[in-house]
User: What shape does this take?
Amino acid sequence: MAFRGPFRLVLLIGAFLSKLYELQSRLCVLRHRLRKTGFENPLMDKARVAGAIAFIARKPTLWLKQIGPERRSVRLQDLRVVKTISASCRRRRLTLLEKLLHELSPPIRLLDVGGTQEFWETVEFCHRPGIEIVLLNTWAIQPRYENFRSVIGDARNMSQFRDQEFDVVFSNSAIEHVGSFEDQHRVANEMIRVGKRLFVQTPNRHFAIEPHFLFPCFQFLPVAVRVWLASRFDLGRWSTSERSDPAFRVDSVRLLSKRELRELFPRAEIVCERLAGLPKSFLVLENWQAPGIKPNEIAF
Assistant: This one.
């Protein structure tokens, strides 16, 4: 596919901005890793700088593995990088969940739809007493903690669970990956059925940066253009060297608007998570007894 004129310029600018976001993430990780070696200020402590450089030179392979996945590319959504924007947002989100959980008496049963142990590790939830976390995925996960359990299933049909079986149904950036709007409606209905309370997060379709591909306004481009970009550029969490079909990667994400969320969860409170004043994502809160959440409580 060939693009010419102003449209080609827009694509080039978008690719350039995407690389700038990636560079910012790399610099964040570099600063974090250097601080772990004792480095704080490069202008005031040359001995520590020399020690940090010696550490990287002595074990370059280990250091690279620490700061990113196998293809040596650090992305904004890498859960292991505690200094990235996404990790910071998750921590603040889980701080809000902790506040809400205070109203419940243990033991608490929490169903995480589409979640992983790594997510809960980054927010230090793995050894919390009085809470059981059930991970629902289409693949098996080997639990590493006593309070975790893995269940294989389909979020569109949770027939293995009883009505109101869980005190909380939690989901973080998962409902946008289940398929069509009809599929998302089925997932929402099942969440409402099996859970007494909901804590569901999903990115805002109208945020300027698409959160999976980290490309400006990627979600509004024609499908053919998105597939072309995904097949030629390393966008977000995906690399052009991966075997997965670019068309499948593009089709695997369907972001939701606030209006659509209100249709999926008509009785819930929809709260905006803001980044630099802009609505980055939404929280669906249902059946919590705590007073309404103020927007500034979850502004990043």
